[in-house]
Amino acid sequence: MPTLLHLDASARSTSFSRRLGARFAEGWRAAHPGAGYVHRDLAADPVPFIGEAWTELCDEVMRRRITDLRRYAEVVQTPAQQAAWAVVAPLLDELLAADVVLVATPMYNFSVPAVLKAWIDQVTFPRMSLAGTRFVVVCARGGTYLPGTPRAPVEHATTYLRDFFDGHFAVTDVDVVAAELVNSLVDPLLADRRGEHDASLAAAEAEIDRLVATSTAAVA
């Protein structure tokens, strides 16, 4: 049976990115009874930032030209490296076991939250490939950053994730869903754009439902 790894990165316990992520996860799990499911809340239980021992592990992976991700533990030597690997191992095991990785994230200050970047750094090593793994990114953004809008060039959240998964993990199967203008609910200067937000959220929910249905059809 397939396995879904679900990552939440929002600092808010209730947020639009969490809402959209939960919608996909619940639909996917209903469509795959008995399938594996792992939920990691990176905001509530953040992983530590990488340190020097982690960089030593990366260096040794490159020196030995290791391409089998399950052999990375072979490079661990010093106590500091053992401590670094103790952080990496469970995160990497979850990632390698997943057929689908769901990343639910807001965009903070034009990019992804630090807790998500910390997770990415911990599980990323040289010469690794996750080709064949499906990634789904659901994102909530305070303003609008759609192609053709004035702020589109500074959208470094979903564009970063898509480019990273493709460029480093060799993953081309990446679906991105975003809800725009969530700040219209709280910012008086955006209040007149509430209708655009509502439409964007409805479109995002419909797209998530379509992705769930597509994944069900693919398995069937």
From TrEMBL:
Residues covered by the Flavodoxin-like fold domain: 3-184
EC number, UniProt record: 1.6.5.-, 1.7.1.17
Cofactor note: Binds 1 FMN per subunit.
Family matches, as InterPro entries: Flavodoxin_fold, Flavoprotein-like_sf, FMN-dep_NADH:Q_OxRdtase_AzoR1, NADH:quinone_OxRdtase_FMN_depd
GO MF annotation terms: electron transfer activity; FMN binding; oxidoreductase activity, acting on NAD(P)H as acceptor; oxidoreductase activity, acting on NAD(P)H, quinone or similar compound as acceptor
Cofactor requirement: FMN
Keyword terms, alphabetized: Flavoprotein, FMN, NAD, Oxidoreductase
Enzyme class: oxidoreductase
Residues holding FMN: S10, S15, F16, S17, M107, Y108, N109, F110
Pfam families tied to this protein: Flavodoxin_2
Catalyzed chemical reaction(s): N,N-dimethyl-1,4-phenylenediamine + anthranilate + 2 NAD(+) = 2-(4-dimethylaminophenyl)diazenylbenzoate + 2 NADH + 2 H(+); 2 a quinone + NADH + H(+) = 2 a 1,4-benzosemiquinone + NAD(+)
Record function comment: Also exhibits azoreductase activity. Catalyzes the reductive cleavage of the azo bond in aromatic azo compounds to the corresponding amines.
Quaternary structure, from the entry: Homodimer.
Similarity comment: family membership: Belongs to the azoreductase type 1 family.
PANTHER family: FMN-DEPENDENT NADH-AZOREDUCTASE 1, FMN-DEPENDENT NADH:QUINONE OXIDOREDUCTASE
HAMAP family on file: Azoreductase_type1
Protein name: FMN dependent NADH:quinone oxidoreductase
Record organism: Pseudonocardia cypriaca
Encoding gene per record: azoR
